[in-house]
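Justification of resources, computational component.

The compute hours requested in this renewal are based largely on the per-chain cost of generating structure records like the one below. Each record pairs the submitted sequence with a full structure-token output. That output is archived, and it is also reused by downstream analysis tasks.
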Amino acid sequence: MLETTDPSPAHWDQFVREQPRAHVLQRAPWGQLKEAFGWRVIRIGLADGDTLAAGAQILLRPLPLNMGTMAYMPMGPYATSDEHLEQLWKAIDRRLKDEGTAFLKWEPGIFQGGSPDIERWGFRESPQTIQPPNTILIDISEDEDDILTRMSQSTRRKVRVSQRKGIRYYEGTRDDVDVFCSMMETTGERNEFGVHEADYYRMAYDLFVADGSAKLILAEHEGDPLAGIMVFAQGETAWYLYGASASAKRNLMASYGVQWEAIQWAKQRGVNYYDMWGIPDEDSATLEDEFQERTDGLWGVYGFKRGWGGEIVRSVGAWDKIYNPLIYTAYWTAAQLRD
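The structure output for this chain reads:
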């Protein structure tokens, strides 16, 4: 029987980096980022001496009206065997009950070639997701010409235009984060989605760019900021989590240029997949029927993302494990009234 532990951030981060499905949202720096903005972080591990065999990073947040606590686990847990996974779930349940948790929301992420038996662990499908369940996944394991060939003709042309118009692409420093944030505000207003406050992006830069697992790429033309992207990478996957573009000189196609620069950076790291991170949660037929008319929410960026030659992939979605049925029911009843 393995010992239940509370691994240090450094110990946990090393363990995550070694996992085949390593994900940025399970890394210790991501926990630090969320902890600075209203969440509390716990890490539950199973260890044989100093060697972790299983574990999870879980975020906790108070529910409104003093209804207790909700827990959220994105993209974990990790275990080296089914036996260890079973022991880990028991340790998670004990810890969350001790924390007064009303329910645990679990978003396991994308599983290539078969999903886990989620209901086996006592979960039910959730009426609410936190991360977008639908995405476009680009295979970047082949050479650049093959990646370009798989793009739509329109996207490929715009990438080439972005390379010929005198745009300067460069790696942003921390001082450039404010420029990026200003463009994020513009993009959020234009595409009707919310953005984080500037301190959030500054801290994300400090935590991930410094250790080489993220990069801020910016584009400017004759002194005018045009576009930017903050891309993250871990293991076999890179994630396009944050992107922005100014309203000026959009004919120069700088948003295509920074995306292409990010794909090249990920490829140089040995990454095989580039996750465009979030499109409307609809089937392929609906997406194609409606993308030219819709601009709300993730529809505003789907038209851009669809042309990069990737595959539409849906994660296994969000699932809830209920520890306090009364509070869980009250929480969702209140949420429905708010909507």
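The mean pLDDT is 94. The CA atoms of residues 111 and 223 lie 43 Å apart.
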